[in-house]
Amino acid sequence: MISSAKNAPADAFAAFLDQDLSTKLLRFTTAGSVDDGKSTLIGRLLHDSKAVYEDQLASVKRSRINRSTGPIDFSLITDGLRAEREQGITIDVAYRYFATSRRKFIIADTPGHEQYTRNMATGASTADLAVILIDATKGLLAQTRRHAFIASVLGIKHVLAAVNKMDLAEYREDLFLKLKDDFVTLAAQLGITNVQCIPISALEGDNIVERSARMRWYDGPTLLEHLETVPLPDSDSLEGFRFPIQSVIRPDANFRGFAGRIASGVVRPGDSVVALPSGQKTRVHSIVTYDGDLPRASSPMSVTLQLEAEIDLSRGDMLVSSLDVPRVARNFHATVVWLHANPLELGRTYLVKHTVRQTKIRATRIRHRVNINTLMQEQATQLRMNEIGSVEFEANVPLFFDPYASNRTTGSFILIDALSNATVGAGMIQEDPAAKRGSAPAEAAANLRIPAGSPVSAQERRIRRGHWPAVLLLEGRQALATRLERHLFEQGFEVLHLTDSAVSTVALSETIRVTQAAGIVVLYSGSDLDAETKRLIATNSEGRFFDLAESKTSHLSEEEHAGQALAFAQALRLPRAEKNQEKVN
Amino acid sequence: MGISEISIERQDSSVASESPELLVSKRLNHLRMLESESIYILREAAAEFARPVMLYSIGKDSSVMLRLAQKAFFPGKIPFPLLHIDTSFKFPEMIEFRDSYAKQIGAELIVHKNQDALDAGANPFLLGTQKCCGLLKTKSLLDALTEGGFDAAFGGARRDEEKSRAKERIYSFRDSLGQWDPKNQRPELWNIFNSRLDKGESIRVFPLSNWTELDVWLYIHVEQIPIVPLYFSREREVVLRNGSIVVINNSSQLLPGEKTQTLKCRMRSLGCVSCTGAIRSEADTLPKIIEEMVSFRRSERENRAIDHDEEGSMELKKREGYF
Ligand SMILES: Nc1nc2c(ncn2[C@@H]2O[C@H](COP(=O)(O)OP(=O)(O)OP(=O)(O)O)[C@@H](O)[C@H]2O)c(=O)[nH]1
Ligand SMILES: [Mg+2]
């Protein structure tokens, strides 16, 4: 249809299509206190970049409501609910779409009112960038801080601070510089590194799309210029492969595929993968799509994977790279934004939805709550609506996760009240230094375990043995440990069973460190380890650490426990490709 | 097909080279991004709800949604039925297309009419668009959902269509009367959806929430998705009524005193014959439609009588249970 070179219009269309399909998408959110002018700004941005249809603009002009001091109340372009127009505030997030020749945008215009913080969090959770507004006549307010803080805990990397209503401040440079200073200080406290400050008037249109003639002292980009040029996050990252299974596709006896959306990383046919929670290992046979099989797929593509081996896998399970596995644990801690009028209660059972897995969970301890005004950590026994804190959790079954900072998909979860069905909290899992996961890139750290100057690297030892070192804590289960030692040895593992008579508890973590350096899988069957010792063992094994106590549920039989331990050990095996390196090197 | 080739090609070339331009293009193009998000949503809802159904309106958005469902469950079949709320005032071309296409792709199709209201003589001329829509679309839809015991219904609505839709969640909760409470929506962070319901409650799921009208046309073009011929321009018998171009299929649709004329026109969005105006257009191919689309200065719903009865009328209809 568009192939003929002689056909000029068709050629133009082909060029248009090519350009449009290669345009990249930036998702951004507005944030800031009530009445700072967020909706007015978005209305103005859409209007000035000609993204508002004439009939839509006409309906705004016709409206009997105009709370602005100009001829058009631009906030009405996004404040689409009756209640919003009547009250002159934004209640819930509005999503708007527009494109320039350089980029496509999805905008979330969020409410500034404290009561609707949950809706701000909704809009911000998927954003790459936040436009935080500051009313030039008011400066930084509590809500400005709260929103900046929420933006930072949600992992938004780029912040554009728009100092608005400069028209009410005589377009003064000194005032802008002071507010810019205030904001940069706040951003630094929050760890936000990419900050751009722009003086604007949303109402008058200064520095939105057009450069302001009234602020010649400002020589930075306009708001739109910045949005069009800010670097985009790379979706095809080097992170480990994570594939939460949404469903099993089985149209007939000949086909069994696992449908899901790649949360991170890349997958190719032949890749070695581990199924969680079973720990079974296999290879990817093919990447199936409606448009044909693919040679390679990356996040965030939705695909269907066929595996080489028939393994047990269902919705909520996860396929992961065998070289870089996530943490598998029932206990973790997370930054939580509380979204509901009934406060977070310790010990109460909630539902958790993490990737596509849903289970029960309890908060066991609140490490601290953050005071929004001072950004200081304070003691707390509950989290009330809109409060943010660091909370320890215990789930009913293990979750497979990464820290939110390195993986937004496997590091996030929501909490649901099982009685009211309301979404009550949002959590971002924090890095746990005591349980760093083992991975190929962690090689540098692994080398530290070896006495300085050792001529043999950890990788070489690992390749010789064909598996990673690890620790399995089987407290008080001497019989089970004895069985496992024999079994694993026969399977080719370098394995050693330590009892508490063989090594004292005091010397245990040090012994573990040495065995790990030697590349051995250790089974420990002594009992009554305290939390601190366990933490040390977890550190010294770099997170390749299996604790039977964590999965001890009364209904599990000895056989099932043995199965869990074996599955864990199977995941330690190196893929063939890495094993072969010994010959090459 | 076209899209996947483009993005794969770019990705592979970017692996080899470290030049900044190529690294930037590692990000999937936006249509692929939207496609993968929609497929994820379709799969989530299909897995989580006891009895989902897809509202199939035969229009361009439904056509895209249907193709995404085919992709989501490939090589399996679409694991839920399609539901068409037939007001019986739809264009005959739509009904023809619906029946043949559903058959061709092997989908299960349910057609529901509010027969009581039709028997009582309900029509837009007698009742006005508001009331007619209320009976033949909203009520009919709510009845069909209750009768079918459906706890989730996929809809092809997009947030860029209308200002109250811009406010809606991807999983949009409805109480036991099918009503939407826009002031009290569940927070919806990331792509983690809360599908918990009590008896009688339901959720409308909008897989195309983040698509724009242009995205839909581009996708139809690159995927070569069949659509109702009414979207393509040709000479049609029409009357000019209250400033809109109404396509006439038979003389019974004429009001007293009206006379037809022939006009080159097409539909930008599809609804009921008397309430959806055509636009003057020369666009008789997809590239021409897309080019025309890019130049539009007025919204696609402008030609829909129902949206303009009063300010905020879409919100009111949605609160009552409209799609
Ligand atoms: N003078 C002046 N007024 C402005 C400017 N921007 C916004 N306003 C006015 O400030 C008021 C609040 O604007 P909105 O855009 O509704 O504020 P908002 O931040 O979206 O408020 P919420 O969404 O409710 O938090 C309105 O009356 C606007 O007309 C500006 O640049 N200059
Ligand atoms: Mg607002």
Describe this structure in words.
The complex is a heterodimer of chains A (585) and B (323). With 585 residues, chain A is of the alpha+beta class. In chain A, strands 2-3-1-4-5-6 form a 6-stranded mixed β-sheet, with helices on both faces. In chain A, strands 7-8-13-11-10-14 form a 6-stranded antiparallel barrel. Chain A contains 15 helices and 25 strands. In chain A, 46% of the residues are buried. Residues 1-7, 436-452 and 579-585 of chain A have low confidence and may be disordered. Chain A has helices at residues 8-21, 38-48, 54-62, 82-87, 117-124, 142-153, 173-190, 223-229, 443-447, 458-465, 478-490, 505-517, 531-540, 558-570, 576-584; strands at 24-31, 94-99, 103-109, 129-135, 158-164, 194-199, 242-249, 257-261, 266-267, 272-276, 281-288, 297-298, 302-307, 318-321, 327-338, 349-354, 357-370, 377-378, 388-401, 412-416, 423-429, 470-473, 495-498, 521-524, 545-547. Chain A has 4 domains: 3-229, Rossmann fold (3-Layer(aba) Sandwich); 242-321, Elongation Factor Tu (Ef-tu), domain 3 (Beta Barrel), CATH 2.40.30; 327-436, Translation factors (Elongation Factor Tu (Ef-tu), domain 3); 458-576, P-loop containing nucleotide triphosphate hydrolases (Rossmann fold, 3-Layer(aba) Sandwich), CATH 3.40.50.300. With 323 residues, chain B is α/β, with parallel strands linked by helices. Chain B has 2 domains: 30-215, 3-Layer(aba) Sandwich (Rossmann fold), CATH 3.40.50; 222-308, no CATH class. Helix content of chain B is 39%, strand content 14%. Chain B has 10 helices and 10 strands. Chain B has helices spanning 2-16, 20-24, 30-48, 60-73, 92-105, 115-119, 124-148, 213-223, 286-295, 313-320; strands spanning 52-55, 82-85, 109-112, 152-154, 171-174, 202-205, 234-241, 244-247, 261-267, 278-280. In chain B, the strands form 2 sheets. Chain B has a 6-stranded mixed β-sheet with strand order 3-2-1-4-6-5. Chain B has a 4-stranded antiparallel β-sheet with strand order 8-7-9-10, with no helix packed on it. In chain B, β1 (52-55), α4 and β2 form a beta-alpha-beta unit. In chain B, α4 (60-73) crosses α8. Chains A and B meet through α1, α3, α4, β2 and α5 of A and α1, α3, α4, α8 and α9 of B. The complex binds guanosine-5'-triphosphate and magnesium ion. Magnesium ion binds at residues 38-39, 75, 79, 90 of chain A. Residues 34-40, 67-69, 75, 89-90, 111-113, 164-165, 167-168, 201-203 of chain A line the site of guanosine-5'-triphosphate.
